[in-house]
Specification:
It is a single chain. The chain is of the alpha/beta class. It folds into 2 domains: 195 residues, Alpha-Beta Complex (Spore Coat Polysaccharide Biosynthesis Protein SpsA, Chain A), CATH 3.90.550.10; 79 residues, no CATH class. Strands 1, 2, 3, 4, 5, 6, 7, 8 and 9 form a 9-stranded mixed β-sheet that branches. Strand 2, helix 2 and strand 3 form a beta-alpha-beta unit. The longest helix has 22 residues.
Amino acid sequence: MTPEAVHAYVCTWREAENIGPCLAAIRAAGVQRVFVVDAGSDDGTAQRARQAGAEVLAAPRGLAGQRQAAIDHCRADLLLFVDADDRLHPDCVRRLLADMAGHDCDVVQASNRVLSPRRYLERGMDAVMALVTSRPGPTAMVGRPALYRIGPLRQAGMDLEFNGVGNEDAALAIRLEGLGARQRIGTGLSFRRHPAGWGDNIRAWRKYGHGDAALFRRYPDKRRNVLRHLLYVYPVERSRLLWAAGQGRLAGYTVLVGAARFLFMLEGLLRRRPPAVSLRPAAGVSPERSGNGTG
């Protein structure tokens, strides 16, 4: 397989600033068919996407639902999900294809780094990516950007309970794991625009904390994993790795992320959130009977 055989999908809402550079990087990586699933942006996102040569699809706002619209639309054997703030390296897709073929996996995620990290929160996230979350090898938890075989992806489907909160990718990984799909962090490299300001980071932590709450409710056998992730992996394990790598000043970042997401998870659990409409259970997967891992 070559990058020309891949269909790429970018789900957007108010991404006028990001969409041009994102699409240019996808094209530079060799992907010819690029689709933007836009949720009615009022800032010119769709117009800029068309000007950049992408085909624009409309979908209601909600990342899980937009991704499901992409899955339903895709007619290729391989689907690449890219976020608007991702910037693929020119060799990224070729490397992901080689990883998928060489390791016979169904999903392979790019290794991520922060694009031009300068401020503390950017450097903290970049260090975590470099030391922990983007190390090539088998995994039970795939994020973005990621290349999927369409068969297992369509069989799993997105969990629309996660519309409006974070961790829709973690929920998808759980459903794929329940189907026995093989997931991997690959050697393809992508750079992400990470928010530098406190306000944007707090909003992101709140979103993912509410996603943690959704995981806690929706997948009861993942509760121990979620708690361990927020109360041990972030504040203890990742801090220790940063100190060992001579980056102890950044350990405060991992402690802060774990604490913030835990507190926002509690907030999410206390909220009475109505269930999403048209929930799609994964074929053969019960939320109570999936495997290990968390976001």
